[in-house]
Amino acid sequence: MSFPLDYDHIRPLSFGGTLPAALSYDDSAAVILPVPLDRTTSYVPGTRNGPRELLLASAQVELWDEELGVDVHTRGIYTLPEMDLSHGSLEGAIARIHRTASGIMDSGKFLVTLGGEHSITPPLVAAAAARHPGLTVLQIDAHADLRDGYQGEHHSHASAMRRSLESAPVVQVGIRNISQEEVEVLSSLQTTIFYDWNMRDDPSWMSRVVEALTGPVYLTIDLDGLDPGLMPAVGTPEPGGLAWRELMTLLRQVFTTRDVVACDVVELCPIPGVWSPNFVAARLVYKLLTYKLGVSAP
Ligand SMILES: [Mn+2]
Fold it and tell me: What is the band of 2 on the pLDDT scale with cuts at 50, 70, 90?
């Protein structure tokens, strides 16, 4: 491979297991970067196991997409080795994520980053925003994550969107956990929130989400944005949330009408012996790849 691996890494696993047409880094359209950062989790730890379990489950994902009638794996899906972020400072880890993502983006690949906790998102957004003027972030999440630091940590998962806002405006969907402290500063922040409790009152809410996305899009999906009945394997579950089909409908609209330049799927916290959430997350990643590579972008 020609990608300069300048980070410590853990044993490699490939998305899709051994894909029938596994291409090299250079020949691949999409690159998957596993980032098992698990430092600031406040409730249940375990997101360090998320990328590995997602990749293991991905071997079972059907490559043919019945919705679009395509199999995009032949476009090339290259999986980089897991970053080893278990040592050193959090600031150092954030810097390594930023540097690695920047290198991948500079090689023209569609980057899909697998978390790990949500604090990996701000350096990814910063890397994307530097290359795509006018970038907007679309966040699917139960939590607003707008605290200006949490438990003494500037880069906490609970501050992921506050840090991301330093690079780009944010559109937040499925929110059902926000503090008074965050609500009090909302008017000063470049964020548009679609609350889970009432967003469906407007039948055209998905169109309103898309309209709020001006320019290229960075997509961050915290898996706790989904209904915890479907996705229980998260560190901070919240009742409510998006159904699978609802999320697919929204994502398809976004990918067909906006230029999604990179994305991440974070906060998978595998439950030993409960495999379905890992598969749901793997299927979600393949749907993202299918919507990106299988339809013509604007
Ligand atoms: Mn969350």
Answer: low
Q: Which helix (H) or strand (E) holds 291?
A: helix 276-293
2 Cβ contact partners less than 8 Å away, ≥ 6 residues apart: 24, 25, 26
How many Å lie between the centroid of ligand 1 and the Cα of residue 67? 28
The CA–CA distances, whole Å, from 45 to 97, 121, 191, 257, 291 equal: 20, 18, 28, 37, 31
Domain boundaries defined on the chain: 30-293
Compute the average pLDDT of residues 145-166.
91
Q: What angle do CA 156, 4, 24 make, to 5 degrees?
A: 105
Segment 67-120, tens digit of pLDDT: 999 999 999 999 999 999 988 999 999 999 999 999 999 999 999 999 999 999
pTM of the predicted model as reported, rounded to 2 decimal places: 0.95
In residues, how long is the chain?
298
Share of the chain above pLDDT 90, in %: 85
Q: How many CB atoms are located within 10 Å of the residue 17 CB? A: 15
30-293: CATH, from 3.40.800.10, 3.30.470.20, 3.40.50.720, 3.40.50.300: 3.40.800.10
CA 76–ligand 1 middle distance (angstroms): 30
The rounded Å distance from CA 122 to ligand 1 centre is 14
CA of 3 to the centre of ligand 1 (A): 31
Q: How confident is the model at residue 274 (pLDDT cuts 50, 70, 90)?
A: very high
Q: Which helix (H) or strand (E) holds 98?
A: helix 90-106
Residues 266 and 288: beta-carbon distance below 8 Å: no
